[in-house]
Design a protein that fits this description.
Chain lengths: 322, 253
Amino acid sequence: MFIWLGLLAVLAALAVIPGAIGNRFYAHVLVLVLLYASMAQSWNILGGYCGQVSFGHSVFFGIGAYGAGMAMVTYRGVPWPGIIAGALLAAAVSALISWPCFKLRGHYFAIATFAIVEIFGRLFLVWDWVGGALGLDYPILDDSWKYFLWSSDKTGYFTGAALLFAFVFGVVRFLEKRRFGYYARAVREGQETAESLGVDSMRVKLTAMAISAFLAALCGAFFAQYNYRVDPPMVLSLDMSMKFVLITILGGMGTFWGPLLGAAVLIPLQEYTRTYLSHFGAGVDQMIYGILIMFMMIRQPKGIMGFLAEFGLLGGKDGGDI
Amino acid sequence: MPLLDVNGLWMKFGSLAANRDVSFSVEEGQIVGLIGPNGSGKTTLFNCVSGLYKPTSGRVTFAGKNITGLPMHRIARMGLARTFQVVRPLNEMTVLENVLVGAYLHSSDERKARETAQACIELCFLEEWRNRPAGAMTIGNKKRLEVARALATSPKLLLLDEAVAGLTSTEVHEMVELIVGLKKSGKTILMVEHIMEAIMPISDKVVVLNGGVKIAEGPPREISRNTEVMTAYLGEKFSRRLAESGVLKEDRP
């Protein structure tokens, strides 16, 4: 109950923010926080709750981005059918890929997902039908919900990002307290134990993967719309995959608010360091990123949510419930 | 027809045969004890029956169906639940959540699952620890959690792998009471145990393994007098003490 109220409060606060801040940079950072929080949450379903660490989520993100991009550029239409098709395709591809990979346990699963990013990255670079290495550049169109494109200000994107955020977080909240949520966590905590209690772990993992990929693809579609273009290095990279993982780890894996907290810390940090420290050379933002993650892993592996629980700021009896 | 029938079961790990041609059956409503020295293949046998291992050869029949080599989750769904000797709590989940995982097997309805889970928690003396993370409990409570979680799946047959070992004497007493209570409520139980004072008085039948081979099967009183079992496991002094203590049931006609 409190969670739903919290979610509502976050959304209400977000609704008044864009009016209150005229600054496009702030609006840009806020849009990115919401987008990356949604991405991290989509990853959290599989990696956090179900315990299957995937470094392959940029593939599903990319499929979503290309779905929107091809609907706009290749087929010169509106992005919506492409977004839906991309998300469904991402779910199907994720299930097909993970069928063999889920037979691998622990680190081996994670390693296998690394390879998948490379394969898809190369494939899209040379595949003419999807635009190859040049990628897809959006045409200049009027600002509208129909095209989900805005160039004059960020309000439209902001509302879109808030809706995406609400949808992804809503789905996770819905699943978390149902049978699937318990089964996913049981598989994470002990696959054989879960099986001994009648849990079909393969089915649970595949379901978690498909839902996770579907939502990641929606985020990818938003990313393409927001950037007016899509090309392979932008989306199908290990760098992008790491964002899914690191934001969730920083915020707290397997917790509901972790992905939002992680994004709220990392994204502004990334954007500000990129803006103000870039004269020190490229990659300073990444270094700060890395140091922060290292500190977190050593000091509190459960992330920001772990810190909050440690200082008794979560109210509930256990942090996992929040 | 017995509820569980194990027939000619072999389990080989490379050249090592942990179970050699083991056959026995468990009648509905019985408590059957499985005893034997360390390394005699008791846990391996449990793993073969519950589906964790795929037996090399032989046949396991449960409730009239051949379950040999089926995946563990399917066997569990058919009504065969087990506990683990080396406890496996789902550490980061609370006691209630652990038991809920079991309770969700036959109902996706949250309210019903919670009712089942709550009942099992109370039955296993875990009410006090309900909202504690399972990983933070004592070994005794983790053993109880194993039982509560398995019970929550509403099994017909419960396989208890040393559910009593490692408990304090009061806890042993409580657990034995619980097991007898479960039998009375209609459950069938197959249990591995080293504490003879716990297992012998309540078992209807005892199966003895040694070196992977079944060396004896019969009522506890008969087993306690069996010379082969004495040499392999019980020891002469203990057998006499057990027989004289009067805790064993009279042989049935």
